[in-house]
Amino acid sequence: MLTKRIIPCLDVKDGRTVKGTNFTQLRDAGDPVELGRLYAQQGADELVYLDISATQEARQNFTSLVREVARHLDIPFTVGGGIGSVSDVESLLEAGADKVTINSAAVANPDLIDELAKQFGSQLVVVAVDARLVGNQWTVFTHGGTRQTERKLFSWAKEVQDRGAGEILFTSMDHDGTKSGYAIDPLNKLSQWLSIPVVASGGAGKREDFLSLFRLTQVDAALAAGVFHFGEIALPTLKTFLAKNGIAVR
Amino acid sequence: MNTVIIKYPGGNVQSVTFALQRLGLSPVISDQHEVIQAADRVIFPGVGEAATAMRHLRERRLDELIPRLRQPVLGICLGMQLMCRHSEERDTPGLSIFDTEVVRFTGKSIKVPHMGWNQLYNTKDWLKTGIEGIFAYFVHSYFVPLNSNTVAQTTYDLPFSAALRKQNFFAVQFHPEKSGEAGGQILQRFLQQEFQP
Fold first, then answer.
1. What is the CATH number of the domain that holds B95?
2. All domains of chain A, ordered by start, with CATH?
3. Are the beta carbons of B118 and A2 separated by less than 8 Å?
4. Global ipTM
5. Structural domain count, chain B
6. What is the pLDDT of residues A4-48, one digit of tens each?
7. Is residue B39 part of a domain?
8. At B62, is the secondary structure helix, strand, or coil?
9. Given A70, A95, A123, which is nearest B113 (Cβ)?
10. Where are the beta strands (DSSP E) in A120-204?
11. List of residues 6+ apart from B182 with CB closer than 8 A
12. From the CA of B179, how many Å to the nearest CA of chain A?
């Protein structure tokens, strides 16, 4: 049986991992390669590395970091942050990344999704969508959650799938950093409606949050950051807890 | 051991190289016939789309070379699919090493691609001992149905071929280079294979 995936996310700035709470406060959480290896040993199913560096120079260093991660890591990892073109993706894949995630660039230029899927295959293309409730509509935001767009979550997610994305990573900005649980309602709707895998992000605070997510929705994977980085939830304990409660995990 | 990884674009050549390096090997990446023919072991990786990959192989006449190789050859993911007779993916003829079709997952209740960790069972032949029940990492939208060359199965909607074997040709649908310690063990197992034609 295909198992549910647990995915620690590492935000990388200037070569170090950091974690934002509601995208504003940053705390240092260690060396990206070492932290990744630790998670792999502890049973992480995949990792995501997001480059949140501001400068072009730091972005180039990120490609070298991706190569080091690929050299040492024996599980799959996705990279993202600031990807804007086919050639950005090409260099990250050549460095050894397994998948790439695009966000703002996909909203600004949706054809990029088609181009990436055609050139590299859908399975390499993860589209990240950040959204929050505005009135009663789940509304898409870009640029690290700072810019509101005209797009609505569900129609955008469908378009992303139709254009050839292989997976959707949905972050509820209303839940991110709150540790109050995942955004069950929109995740349930997304995961039933789409035919590609959905990764849930934003809101994990305790292991019961992961259990509720997998019991109440059809999502394929749960992503979290701070709860892993600061040891609030240990991966082996989480996996055992989920298995005992009837969730298929590795 | 002289291990050669067949070079082609968009593939996961880099990941396979790193995985072999972690096992202490120094693999060579090449699309040169004489280099590939002289190898002790050949690895034929692949991520991407079948028709584009086959065109690339034909342009370098690797489609003629690979089926004639006599040393142990390991196809990974798309590499395994291309070793079959034909793929539904853009109606692409393959290398016909394994006499089987490659078809798309069509189940209504499943997500495609099949992405993540899934279990290997009914393991036999080169995967007979120590592999039953382990989890491996899969990413694919097309699959090889069960056939007489199947040596490991996985279930996603229905049971399909997770691994194949015919003479000196070995193949896995999953990514051993991305399947943690278990994956390293499977790569090691392939490297230990001897085949005398």
1. 3.40.50.880
2. 5-244 (3.20.20.70)
3. yes
4. 0.92
5. 1
6. 999 999 989 888 887 654 434 444 557 888 889 889 999 999 999
7. yes
8. helix
9. A123
10. 125-134, 137-142, 147-152, 167-172, 198-201
11. B131, B134, B135, B136
12. 6
